[in-house]
## 1
Amino acid sequence: MRRRELVALMCSAALSWPARAEPKLRRIGLLASRPLPPLESFKKKLAELGYAEGKSIAIVPRFAEGGDGRYPALAWELVALPVDVIVAWGTPASLAAKRATAKIPIVVVTGDVVNTGIVSNLARPEANITGVIAINVELEEKRLELLKEVVPRLKRVAILANWLNPLNRINLETAHRVARDLSLTIDVFQVRGNDEVDGALRALVEARPDAALLAADTLLLNNRKLIADTMAQNRIPAIYPFREYSDVGGFITYGANLSIMFQHAAEYVARILKGERPHNLPVQQATAFELIISLKAAAGLGLTVPPAVQVRADEIVE
């Protein structure tokens, strides 16, 4: 075969050879209220596990922006794409994801999944659902006990809660029970969306409680700066469920570390992408609970935090 013919044949073969397909990005649907700080821990952990955004995975966010009623439609959007896994943050988002699909794996990051109907068994969850949880029902008791230790002559506690969040309603039952044991009166101030937070705070301030407790809820977390500032300006000692409130000047925070919870959620997502099935992954219960006390905020409130409480703190803000 002549040289010219050989070159022509090789070129023809190269042109006809199928192009090597680019590896398909696995799509992770993210159903949450807003792009809050703990989500960065989730992405970072995924990258450490070999799933870097834009290289092997694409994260598809759907944010309700404080409107919990939007979650069902947003969940259906993720199912219609479809995505390979849905990560749902909070009870309203988790329930919406569950109702939208029984096939796509779902990893939830939330509070109580059994009493809210997300799964029926932690060790063997429903076929397509697993996740990481903090049992907030138990934490409400500890938060009220902390307020009792820190606030002299505590009698009336205001609770700000999202009435559209089933977990908040369950937690309120616990709060009322514990309040009776501690001889406290509970006043509940409800919100159903971002547009109601300011009004609920005004009503709470007018009620002049001895202290306040913030429910574990992402809608309220969205408004953490407004809430913490309102409590400080009106000298209302408040206890919060997430460390992100401490970052904006909150007095006391006691609860699970959300960033660590999302790191565990990332580990589950990675295992699911490698072929493991959600029902073989037990729902994990958070083990990292932290007490953060701001002595600076205490000074502004005219309070002295007892040494017995300070020594139990994981972090003190001077």
Note: Confidence is low (pLDDT under 50) at residues 13-19.
## 2
Amino acid sequence: MPVRIRQALNIESGLNDGIALPVVLLFAALAGAGAGEASGTEFVGFVATQLILGPVVGVIVGWGGAWLIDRAARFEWMSPSAEGAAILGLALLSFAEAEMVEGNGFIAAFVSGLVFGNRVRDRCSFLFEFIEAEGHLLVLLTFLMFGAAIVPGAIGEISWEIVLYAVLSLTVVRMIPVAISLTGTGLKVPSMLFLGWFGPRALASILFVLLVLEEMGIAGVAEISVITIDTVVLSILAHGVTAAIGARWYGGLVEKAGECEETIPASELPTRTGLG
């Protein structure tokens, strides 16, 4: 797969969750307020604490953690394996500190990661490799727990309406906006289809349904939960089954196309060396 396309998938999947969470929190809070679960003052206070305190904590922890790790690496106070453990510690610290001040821990951890990635300088290659490997393991563990604890109950509530919504969510609702966003990039139609199909990883949906909806007291939470879980299950199955086939198909098309926008050389770490 071309580096640019792989990067687009990784960046979109990674950034989507953190960028979308504040928006989901805002509308979930509005829905709760509209249902009479909270007064206007409580709504404003909730939005302020969630969307302000979390990012503030994330900036402080991410910046301070990057400075400490850089300094420890420079003076050889820390081994590379300990640096990896320190990253996980910073993520947990960001989450815990934000929750202590009534901010949003997930937003704090997301912002902390952004700040850390732009601030840290020493041993970057090891840090990014560690994050990629450990992050993949945590994703697998999340899906394992999701399948064992949540899926059995939701599958029993499935209906043809839910299946129809899930199919539309993974195709029309997902792929048309992706195609529109890629207008003007020079990418070919197969690339737009590939990016539109393989972009979602379902982790954000699991987070939203378990964290946001359960805490907001929104009407119809049970129905929304079932719809979301069944959609995630279909996503895991459909994208898992088509991953190898789709990658080979797309790789063959790009190889035959020769020089094009998709094959323009790109750095493996564009945030470090520039986009060119």
Note: The two ends are 18 Å apart (CA to CA).
## 3
Amino acid sequence: MSDRLAVEIAGLKLPNPTMLAAGILGLSPESLLQAAENGAGAVVTKSVGLKSRVGYGNPAVVQVDRGLLNAIGLANPGANYFAEEIRGLEKRGLRIPLVASVFGFSSEEFAEAAKILTKAGADAVELNVSCPHVEKTGSEIGQDPDLVREVVEAVKTKIGKPVVVKLTPNVADIVEIAEAAVKAGADAMAAINTVRAMAIDLETTQPILANKIGGLSGSVVKPVAVRCVYEIYDAVKVPIIGCGGVSDWRDAVEFMLAGASAVQIGTAIASRGLGVFKSVTKGIDLYIKKKGFRSMTDIVGLSHKR
């Protein structure tokens, strides 16, 4: 693939601007390697906390029009266990950046989980301050600029690797949250996590998800995500990773024109398979060539220029 697609985000060098999103295939070393082998430019693990969590019961995922609604409940094996899972991935052939998604119920838990996973080999961490369906973590932190600042500062004091903050769209002003994260030392933003939502079964008259409320992902949320990236780009000077509804190269280019330097792909894998990484990358490359640009960076934020 052409060098014009290579991108650097907070010191991480990606051969192309596509990334495996957190929560999709990222809970085993085999699935991370599989995403890399199928063309992802970087991989993000499933969100991992300091302690293991069972998560919610079924139904935990439901398909809706143009998207998926999930309430997994941040199920994970815990940072120490997962650290052993990812240790040595480079020796097993991983040649792209490995980003560990972490969450916590306090700034100390975020920081300790980040420390454990970066020591095990993660090249960066993505702070999940945006899960919409678990109390006392996720978006309850991500909706408060002071709490976001506290978490970022705690993590930055514990690790020397890049810190990405994954933002929630479930706020009145996403720019305020992004600015607080950057002032605290965040190296990049990821926008957005899922949109708080629910679905009700007409026959049973009850909410479908066991947790009732979940997070909406897929193409249905893309306009929201693009708007968030566009607003953040004008406000901060760190790289932005677009996430939410990327299923083909057109979606990816739209995010880049809004200001994203890379995109994460998640829900589309369920319908299009792992081949989506190569098809998106190829489409971006052809678009850049057709338009006469020298590299992918030439189109980042182009919709802001007149």
Note: The chain is about 35% helix and 20% strand.
